[in-house]
Known about the structure:
The chain is of the alpha/beta class. The chain has 10 helices and 10 strands. The protein has helices spanning 3-16, 19-26, 30-44, 60-88, 101-113, 125-133, 196-209, 222-230, 240-246, 269-287, and strands spanning 91-96, 118-123, 139-144, 151-154, 156-159, 187-189, 216-218, 235-238, 249-252, 259-266. The strands form 2 sheets. It has a 5-stranded mixed β-sheet with strand order 2-1-3-10-4. Strands 7-6-8-5-9 form a 5-stranded mixed β-sheet, sandwiched between helices. Helix 1 crosses helix 2 and helix 1 (3-16) packs across helix 3 (30-44). It is rod-shaped and about 105 Å long. The N and C termini lie far apart (64 Å).
Amino acid sequence: MDLLGAWRAFVNVSERGSFTEGAAATRVPQSVASRRIAALEKLLGERLFDRSSRGAILTQFGRDMLPSAQRLVRLADDMEHEAEQARLSPLRLAVPDACPVRDLARLAAEARRNGVHLDLHPAAPAERAELVRSREVRAALVAVPAGDATWSVRLGLAATDDLPVRTVYVETLRAGRATRSSRRRRIWIQPEDDVPHIRDRMFRTRDAVGLQPAQVGVAATLTAATAEVLGSEDLLLCSPGQAVELGLHWRPVGEIDPVRGFGIAAAVGDDAERIKTRLWPAIARCLGAGDPNEETT
């Protein structure tokens, strides 16, 4: 038995003095409203309406029950309104500041279609993790190793020229092997990848193949790193999607396969689950977590 629906039908019929109008206000057929009220009378053991009269005339018992029923219906209406407001309350989510504005806007629009209203806060990896700890955001896309990742983005090296090889080996950047310039080519790591599981692997590879320390460095900003690459033969460690956005030519790294991994950190567990369940594909597109075998020219 729909107890709340029965009380709602009782209140609407009582206030309008008509089963027909009361059923319409309850948004159910008259037969359904009549059955609900009959079930309620059976549950209570007393009649609510005088069946011998024409129209919806309350019995004394019905008049006694009406004030409480009205309070119950008003409370239910208030709760439904508050639930709707809670669903519409923005969920502040810290996201990588390397994500393009258009992709972030598409993520927010798709989230809204899935019943999640996002307030996006772009930030660097360390800042995103701190924002969750301080509860300045409800959740964050945090940098994690590939094995722990919910979303994974393959990284490679990108340059202004169309590279003549399908794979770039870091060891080819050793001093004396540059073909078009005496300046030693460098690899720039952007702030999004200034995390141990990416940065330290690049440094270890640099040392293992005999590059000078300055040939693999961390840039202060993505803009600064891109400017270095656009003005020289340097290489940018980035995703295929970023390479396309920046007008660069991307290739995988020969010695290692660096991966930008993302997970969800949230102050409340159900926020993390809601984001993963409802927004996994939209976030994947925003991060560029596509086909791991994708290459761009």
